Amino acid sequence: MPTSLPQIEISTHPTPVLRLAVPGQDPVDFHPLWLRERCRSANSVDQRTGQRLYNPSDLDPALAITSVQRGASDQILVGFSDGVESHFTEQDLIREALMQPGHDGLPELTAWNASLNPMPEATWQERPSADLQRDIVTKFLRYGFVILHGVPQVDQALFQVAETFGFVRDTNFGRLFNVRSIPDANDLAYSSLALDPHTDNPYREPAPGIQLLHCLTNQTTGGLSTLVDGYACAQALRQRDPEAYRLLTQVQSRFRFQDVDAEHIAWQPHLKLDENGVFQAVHFSPRLDFSPMLPAAQLQAFYDARRHLDSLLKAAEFEIRFRLDDGDLVMFDNRRLLHGRTSFDTREGVRHLQGCYIDSDGPRSLYRVLNRQGAQQMLAAE
Predict the structure, then answer these.
(1) Please, are residues 93 and 83 in contact by the beta-carbon 8 Å criterion?
(2) Residue 87 in contact with residue 12, Cβ under 8 Å?
(3) Contact yes or no for 341/225 (Cβ under 8 A)
(4) What is the mean pLDDT of residues 16-36?
(5) Apex CA 360: angle with CA 337 and CA 52, to 5°?
(6) Residue-wise burial string across 355-380, b where 16 or more C-beta atoms lie within 10 A, e elsewhere
(7) pTM of the entire structure?
(8) What is the pLDDT of residues 271-284, one digit of tens each?
(9) Long-range contacts of 21-26 (CB under 8 A, 24+ apart)
């Protein structure tokens, strides 16, 4: 009976061949060099670190597969013309072959809008279990944010959360920054004004990957936090106005920040794609961007495109609003989500958040490690 799942086919005549068969697609032969660089034998890979003991560029370009045979379970033993033999599992080969840039075993992104329900949230524990960490990091990777309740209302408590998921990144605002209304602020975040949806520090290269904001106290009725999924808005723009989407992925704007001690400039497209056209990031901060000098017609088209994206980012269709209460912490992907707030009245009381940044790869690494440990525990229990 035909299978609807990818599988490995083996042919030995006239020469040994491994072939990936994916339903609905033409079969693809595994290249000998592709297989050889994934060889796990002791003379190819350091068994403690998993790192190669050779440079794949030193392999014979004419390297060939000399033998293939199936073993127990889904094991496949492959011999190469340089005398090396290596065991592979069918599932590992399929997973490696189907892996696409930017995924690498991570959860698929879930685009969301204002109808998101339930919110991705969890209750924090001082010593979070592996299950709690897995729950938090999975929600974060899918939705781009997670809200944690019950984080201790003490100075710098957010570092315990941040260091669970990555390494704190120092910036021109320091290792930690206090978000509250202060006189003579060097950024509008340190005022009581409303803030439109924006990404932080688009003038840095790279921009901070993940932001954490921890509410120490919120005595105001205003100051609601806002989040918008830039990934969902980019998808909507691509469907509704393809030319605007194209312009915003190609035209670079200049983002600039300066104060007495710093001046940062970076040129970025508002919507950043990778080499395969896959969404990577949003760079958007109306307070800080400057459009390039282009011929009048091109510049007008660019402004129209930017206005269309801005209208989506501020639309009730996409924005969620929520109150950060005392002890709440929101962790969000600063390269995917845009955040903001409503205005508040300082005469009502104090609104004090503490924030910091970590790099994007921290939660991704933790997710893989937790899954690997979980799989090892399951095997040990069998």
Answers:
(1) no
(2) no
(3) yes
(4) 93
(5) 150
(6) bbbbbbebbbebbeebeeeeeeeeee
(7) 0.85
(8) 999 988 999 999 99
(9) 22/98
C-alpha span between 319 and 366 (Å, rounded)? 29
Q: Judge contact between 111 and 130, C-beta under 8 A.
A: no
> Which is nearest to 176 in space by CA: 161, 165, 194?
161
Tell me the two tokens of residue 273. Answer: 């794609």
pLDDT at 1: 45
Q: How far is residue 48's CA from residue 54's CA, in Å, rounded to a whole number?
A: 15
Question: Residue 9: pLDDT above 60?
Answer: yes
Strand partners, 46: none
Asked whether residue 184 carries a pLDDT value surpassing 70, the answer given is no
Centre a 10 Å sphere on the Cβ of residue 92 and count the other Cβ atoms it contains.
14
Strands 145-149 and 329-333: antiparallel
Amino acid at 192: S
**The pairing of beta strand 252-258 with beta strand 145-149:** unpaired
- Residue 155 has which token pair? 């100075």
Over pLDDT 70: what percentage of the chain? 94
CA dist list (Å): 16 to 10, 31, 68, 81, 290? 7, 11, 6, 11, 59
Interhelix angle for 242-250 vs 230-240, to 10°? 130
Structure tokens at 10: 């083996």
Give the position of tokens 């932080």: 200
R_g of the chain computed on alpha carbons? 25
